[in-house]
Amino acid sequence: MEYGEELIQQVWEKARAVQGFDLAHWRKDECGAWICREHYGNENSEFGWKIVKVRPGPDSLENLEAMHWENDYNIVDHRPKCRVTEDRTGLKPWEQVTEPRNTRL
C-alpha cells in the first residue's frame, strides 16, 4: 500500500521514542525493534520499517503503526507478531544500549 509522506511521518511519530536517541532518526516498534526514519520501505536494512494495520477499518492514523519490516501485527488476536527485537546481548537489565542493534527471535 502506498502512503503519503504526511501520513508516513505521523505514523513514525507514534512509534516509541527512546531517551538519549534522536527521535527524528531512531524509534522502536511495538516488539522493541529499532527502526530508522530514513529506512522506511527498505527490506534490506537492519532498521527498515513498514506501516501495518492494527485495527480493522480505514487506513487512518489511529489504525496504523510503524513496525520493523520483519515484524507484523495480528488484527484478530490484537497482538504483534515479533520476529525481530532489540539486541541486548551483554547488557544488564538496567543498562541502556549505546547504539541501536537488532536481533532475530
Describe the structure.
- It is built from one helix and eight strands.
- The chain is mainly beta and 105 residues long.
- Strand 1 and strand 2 form a beta hairpin.
- The protein has one domain (5-100).
- The strands form four sheets. The protein has a two-stranded antiparallel sheet.
- The mean pLDDT is 96.
- The chain has one helix spanning 5-14, and strands spanning 26-28, 34-36, 49-53, 64-68, 72-74, 79-81, 84-86, 102-104.
Question: What key attributes describe this structure?
Answer:
1 helix; globular; single chain; about 10% helix; about 100 residues
Number of strands: 8
Instruction: Output the structural class.
Output: mainly beta
Radius of gyration: 14 Å
Q: Proportion of β residues?
A: 25-35%
- The domain tally reads 1
Topology order in helix (H) and strand (E) letters:
HEEEEEEEE
Give the strand line-up of the largest sheet.
1-2
Largest sheet: 2 strands, antiparallel
Intertermini distance: 27 Å
Shape: globular
The total count of helices amounts to: 1
Average per-residue pLDDT, rounded, comes to 96
- Poorly predicted runs are none
Quick structural overview:
The chain is mostly beta strands and 105 residues long. Helix content is 10%, strand content 27%. The chain contains one helix and eight strands, in the order αββββββββ.
Please outline the helices and strands.
Elements: H1 5-14, E1 26-28, E2 34-36, E3 49-53, E4 64-68, E5 72-74, E6 79-81, E7 84-86, E8 102-104
Antiparallel strand pairs: 1-2, 3-4, 5-6, 7-8
